[in-house]
Design a protein that fits this description.
Elements (H helix, E strand, L loop, with lengths): L1 H13 L6 E5 L4 E10 L2 E6 L3 E8 L10 E8 L3 E5 L4 E5 L5 H4 L1 E8 L6 E7 L4 E12 L2 E3 L21 E5 L7 E3 L3 E5 L4 E7 L7 E12 L2 H6 L15 E2 L29 E9 L6 E7 L4 E7 L2 E3 H4 L1 E2 L9 H4 L12 E6 L9 E2 L3 E5 L4 E7 L7 E12 L3
Antiparallel strand pairs: 1-2, 1-7, 2-3, 3-6, 4-5, 6-17, 8-16, 9-15, 10-11, 10-14, 10-16, 12-13, 12-15, 18-27, 19-26, 20-25, 20-27, 21-22, 21-27, 23-24, 23-26
């Protein structure tokens, strides 16, 4: 037995080799896969093709003194990892690959900036080392954002003190999972099990285009995989222990929203605590001011506004209530035709990119949010080029965390 193990280890160590190996079992079965290493007295092999393995079952019962065995088979899927004892293996043919390279998995994904985090397709386990490298550019307004981010920060971004637009990540779909600063490149050790999500560290996403190209490389923790088998070290055990690699066959992960208080496991109850934010709404912003506030259907939001803007030369200076509605209300040339020129109005940007019907805010209103989404505020006008000034808007909204 020791000679077999020694011979196999010498073969694996001597060959510098990224295709598949061929493993010949003493039962006559031939496997195609990658030998990942030797752990706890067994060879760890990731299959590159499905296989049928012989399984020897112990049929003894409490009244029998002599063990009886029966031979059955089991089907192992492509991508699974199995652990084989040296006594089960006749010989292995190594095919153009190093064992060090085989211990790593690599995935690439394009990360755009939108309403939700991007599912990387990579599941990690606690203690695994993960390397993330990113290139590419996201364009937002006049900004050209690389994975390292801008020289400025964004107080409403997921990480307010980290560079605006920098690549960030989070493991799992829990609302309180810590966010990881990644930038153009970083290696980290996973602190929990879960799917890796990615996004850019910026609060506004409506004007974003382009994407980061992200390469994720993780080391497979063979020791952790082997420990999941209760009888992994029993020399007389005849059972096979296939383990699925993280991410293999896992499918699409749940959507993770970028909403600040997002909790996928919420039970619908509110904390009762209110948050407050004050923003400036410029008279020249035709698309509106992104408040950075993500709301849920049914939320009660209190909005008060002050200040004046100049709504063009013909209308002149107006308050958040706007000018007296005129003929334009008949023809419907403004976002809210029945409201006066220059009045403060708003809308909700939905996660699918659509918007709700604009509504009048004026100098004060209590809004019952019609749908989940982000709140935008703007001036009610059809020509923003000759406007000037801004409203100061105070928003009180529920803390949904």
């Amino acid at each position: 037995m020791k000679k077999i193990v020694f011979a196999l280890l010498i073969t694996l160590a001597a060959v510098s080799i990224a295709a598949a190996d061929t493993i010949y079992l003493r039962s006559g079965t031939t496997l195609r896969g990658n030998v990942l290493g030797y752990i706890n007295g067994r060879f760890a092999i990731q299959l590159t093709a499905p296989a049928t393995l012989p399984v020897r079952t112990d049929n003894r019962n409490s009244n029998s003194t002599q063990p009886t065995y029966s031979q059955t088979t089991r089907t192992v899927r492509q991508g699974e990892v199995i652990f084989l004892r040296p006594r089960d293996i006749d010989h292995i043919e190594i095919d153009g690959r190093s064992l060090d390279d085989a211990r790593y998995q690599t995935q690439t994904v394009d990360v755009t900036l939108g309403a939700n985090w991007i599912d990387s397709g990579v599941d990690v386990r606690r203690g695994e080392r993960v390397r993330v490298d990113a290139t590419g550019t996201i364009y937002a307004g006049r900004s050209r954002i690389t994975p390292a981010g801008l020289s400025s920060t964004d107080q409403y971004a997921p990480l307010p003190r980290v560079a605006e637009g920098a690549l960030i990540g989070v493991i799992g779909n829990e609302f309180d999972s810590p966010i990881i600063e990644l930038g153009a490149g970083r290696e980290f050790t996973a602190d929990r099990d879960g799917r890796l999500y990615l996004t850019a560290n910026r609060s506004s996403y409506t004007d974003a285009r382009g994407a980061f190209n992200v390469r994720i490389r993780k080391e497979v923790d063979l020791s952790a995989m082997a420990r999941t088998s209760d009888d992994n070290n029993r020399p007389t055990d005849d059972a096979y222990d296939p383990f699925e690699l993280p991410g293999e066959g896992a499918g699409t992960a749940p959507v993770r929203s970028r909403q600040p208080g997002y909790d996928p496991n919420r039970d619908g109850r509110r904390t009762g605590r209110m948050l407050e934010r004050i923003i400036a709404v410029q008279g020249t912003e035709s698309r509106g001011a992104d408040t950075g506030i993500d709301l849920r259907a049914g939320d009660q939001v209190m909005i008060t506004a002050s200040g004046n803007i100049t709504a063009g030369r013909r209308v002149g200076v107006v308050s958040p209530n706007g000018a007296t509605p005129g003929a334009a209300s008949i023809f419907g040339t403004r976002p809210v035709p029945t409201a006066g020129v220059g009045a403060l109005i708003g809308y909700i940007l939905l996660q699918n990119g659509q918007t709700t019907q604009p509504f009048l805010v004026g100098n004060q209103m209590t809004l019952t949010v019609p749908s989940d989404g982000r709140l935008f505020l703007l001036v009610n006008d059809d020509n923003y080029s000759d406007n000037s000034g801004s409203f100061s808007v105070r928003i009180q909204y529920p803390d949904n965390r």
